[in-house]
DNA sequence: CCATCTTTGTGCACGCGTTCACAAAGACAT
DNA sequence: ATGTCTTTGTGAACGCGTGCACAAAGATGG
């Protein structure tokens, strides 16, 4: 019997829930602010308030990293900053490439918050020959032809896609082919990638649509059902799943 | 305005789970693409593949909207586009203001995908007097002094914050005070808002940190399992130029 | 050294979201 | 009409995430 090795895959071995991972950067930001004010320790209650989460949730999150708190006192700010940074992999340098230097790509390149946490813009890549060599945010834009070489020369494993939607999958494939295993996608497309590659997407349009949904719901509540644009939607009756078929199908 | 009806049982009254709402825009996008190709009907299996989700999940999502499919055939594309659009509130016009016309704000203003789905940039607002009157994306930037008037004159209920983090809460308060009830926040800050106001955040830094976490985990797995759990400086940094991390264990 | 007080760490219950699996519904052919 | 075949709609089981509530740990003061 191997020592300590469980039968479970790595996801369980490291044991940090995805939801917790997503909150760690939030805690880190709050802790960094405290650190800059030279606050030595902080209670779960205070830190939770600053991060906008439940204090029990925060304590449970930290418990996954180990027990770094002191009962009756709280958590040591500096120590926690270090532990979370290490857990997130921010103690090392992450070269990043941005592909598609248009409106958004240029804004990202100019974004100061990038470098603040170990992320370094290693290269800017665009398909437009007219942009080649032109500096954006002090970094010369390089042509897509050299994408593979750029990735390999710089040891890049994280890529940001800010091209039009139509080019995103193709760019993605090339990034992955060159060795990139993490992608942040700003293009409004579903990217398909092989196992082992992580994709996260930032989709402005989706966010707005979600807001619009709730906005409409709020407005609808105030004016109590005034719509009736086309036959009222069948209230999803919990007990009568079928039966009503009045909704007309427009051929 | 909200007349004391701050209670919030509506989430269940309308009955559409939040997770489903978040996927509707995804389905809508895939359906729109099918519609443009004049595809008349689509099965849950096909549509699910296009949207990158499980087909059973998709069917259950649609079941919350009512039963719009035909067994043995699938879903009518045009009809579904309409139903989802209506459910999301996209059949009406949503005037939006963007506050903070810097790198990111300007990119957002120039973003074509904005207008495509009922969202209309009603105004651009910035605190910099030098920007006042200057057109960005064909729209003249207005000064923050007039924020309240702009919101009210245009009937704006959705606001986008793209100011520096330090100004975000203040801007948020003014937006809410003027009647905005949905906010999309790009600044890396936790915004606090009264009940009845929805906030969604887009945080590039957090996304990158989450990717870095998984990236580090992948790298750690490759180099075969032992890894100093506590203390000790991270060692899997072949070319790490950081080399600092002087933080030491307290106590 | 003991009492008290603060705050952590976590057991537990609950609700939401996901997925499987299948009966029923309907299209289509004969 | 009847049978076959496709695909929906959903019951049910399961796992994850959340938050309450509390015992234990440790600091602090006498
Ligand atoms: N601008 C925004 O605020 C915003 C917001 C949300 C999403 N988006 C999305 O981000 C993407 C970029 O938006 P944008 O406004 O910057 O567009 P843009 O047209 O200004 O820029 C796109 C850039 O990508 C380059 N490009 C095109 N094909 C390429 C390829 N195959 N390889 C490399 N580069 C290529 C173009 O040369 C151009 O410079 C789009 O998919 C858009 O939908 C933009
Ligand atoms: N640029 C990016 O790619 C990017 C990415 C992620 C997040 N962000 C965040 O988005 C925000 C904006 O980033 P940016 O790069 O555009 O910054 P920026 O400095 O280029 O622009 C900020 C703009 O906000 C204006 N402003 C400042 N205070 C204001 C106030 N009180 N009211 C109205 N306007 C005000 C400034 O005049 C300026 O025009 C920041 O919080 C940043 O952290 C930016």
TrEMBL record, chains A, B:
Pfam families documented for this protein: CoA_binding, Put_DNA-bind_N
Cell compartment(s), UniProt: Cytoplasm
UniProt-annotated stretches for the region Disordered: 219-251
GO cellular component, one term: cytoplasm
Claim: DNA-binding is one of the keywords in the record: yes
Protease keyword on record: no
Keywords: Cytoplasm, DNA-binding, NAD, Repressor, Transcription, Transcription regulation
One annotated GO molecular function: DNA-binding transcription factor activity
Residues the entry annotates as binding NAD(+): 100-105
DNA-binding region residue numbers: 26-65
Domain annotation CoA-binding: ranges: 89-190
Cited SUPFAM superfamilies: NAD(P)-binding Rossmann-fold domains, Winged helix' DNA-binding domain
Main location, first listed in the record: cytoplasm
Binding partners and assembly: Homodimer.
Family: Belongs to the transcriptional regulatory Rex family.
NCBIfam families xrefs: PRK05472.1-3, PRK05472.2-1, PRK05472.2-2, PRK05472.2-3, PRK05472.2-4, PRK05472.2-5
Record's protein name: Redox-sensing transcriptional repressor Rex
């Amino acid at each position: 019997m191997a020592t300590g090795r469980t039968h479970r895959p790595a996801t369980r071995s490291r044991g940090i829930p995805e939801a917790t991972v997503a909150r760690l950067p939030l805690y880190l930001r709050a802790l960094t602010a405290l650190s800059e004010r030279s606050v030595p320790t902080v209670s779960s209650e205070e830190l939770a308030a600053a991060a906008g989460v439940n204090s029990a949730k925060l304590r449970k999150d930290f418990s996954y990293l180990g027990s770094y708190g002191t009962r009756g006192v709280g958590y040591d700010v500096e120590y926690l900053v270090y532990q979370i940074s290490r857990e997130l992999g921010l103690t090392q340098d992450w070269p990043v490439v941005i592909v598609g230097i248009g409106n958004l790509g240029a804004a990202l390149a100019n974004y100061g918050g990038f470098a603040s946490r170990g992320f370094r813009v290693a290269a800017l890549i665009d398909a437009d020959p007219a942009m080649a060599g032109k500096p954006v945010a002090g970094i010369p834009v390089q042509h897509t032809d050299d994408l593979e070489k750029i990735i390999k020369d710089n040891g890049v494993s994280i890529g940001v896609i800010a091209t039009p939607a139509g080019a995103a999958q193709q760019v993605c494939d090339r990034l992955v082919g060159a060795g990139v295993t993490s992608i942040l996608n700003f293009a409004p497309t579903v990217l398909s990638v092989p196992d082992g590659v992580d994709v996260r997407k930032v989709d402005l349009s989706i966010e707005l649509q979600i807001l619009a949904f709730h906005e409409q719901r709020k407005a609808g509540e105030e004016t109590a059902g005034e719509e009736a644009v086309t036959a009222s939607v069948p209230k999803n009756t919990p007990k009568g799943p079928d039966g009503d078929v009045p909704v007309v199908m427009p051929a």
